[in-house]
Amino acid sequence: MQDETARLGEALGRLEGALGPALIKKEVHKIDGWNPEGAPDLHPLVLLWYKTREDLGLAELTGSLPRSRWVQETLQLGELLKDAATHPEYPELLDKLRDAANWRSAVNQMKINQIQVGDGSCAEQRAHRIVGGNPTEKGLANHS
Questions:
Q1: Average of per-residue pLDDT across 125-138
Q2: In whole angstroms, what is the distance from residue 141 CA to residue 88 CA?
Q3: Per-residue pLDDT, 116
Q4: Are the CB atoms for 84 and 90 separated by under 8 Å?
């Protein structure tokens, strides 16, 4: 359980670093009440960050990591961000991620880059799985 929580914490940290504190602060102020999913014009990745932070807090309190789609999406995006960090286009990808209109394009580009770098390793197989059915694309599509 501690390993899973630590892994989620690292992925959440990567997402937080990619979005930046200024964007998160600006977007979180759009949340009014108990339903962040209903916040108008909330950046989908800030919503992901927010919901995963809630889940991580619950995990730390209860000792049980939720298997929510938020957790799964954050773990997948964290891996993509980790792999993309050494790519020459990483700064441009981060700019796209921060743009509510272009974040999907950045995620897709990270998936493509991950596949192109693959050499038959686990990373390539993982990227193929993600491209085939990434919950980030499906799950957050309703919130963009």
A1: 44
A2: 28
A3: 76
A4: yes
Q: What is the pLDDT averaged over residues 56-78?
A: 93
Mean pLDDT of 28-57: 91
Task: Judge whether 46 and 72 are in contact, CB under 8 Å.
Answer: no
Whole-number pLDDT of residue 117: 66
Question: CA distances (Å), 93 to each of 26, 41, 60, 89, in order?
Answer: 20, 21, 31, 6
DSSP letter at 134 equals: -
CB 19 within 8 A of CB 70: no
**Under a CB-based contact definition with an 8 Å cutoff, are residues 37 and 84 in contact?**
no
Instruction: Give the Cα separation of 80 and 118 in Å (integer).
Output: 13
Q: pLDDT tens for residues 12-28?
A: 999 999 999 999 999 99
Classify the phi-psi angles of 4: left when phi > 0, otherwise alpha if psi is within -120 to 50, otherwise beta: alpha
DSSP assignment of 85-117: TTSTTHHHHHHHHHSTTTHHHHHHHHHHHHHHH
- Nearest alpha-carbon partner for 8 in 58, 43, 83: 58
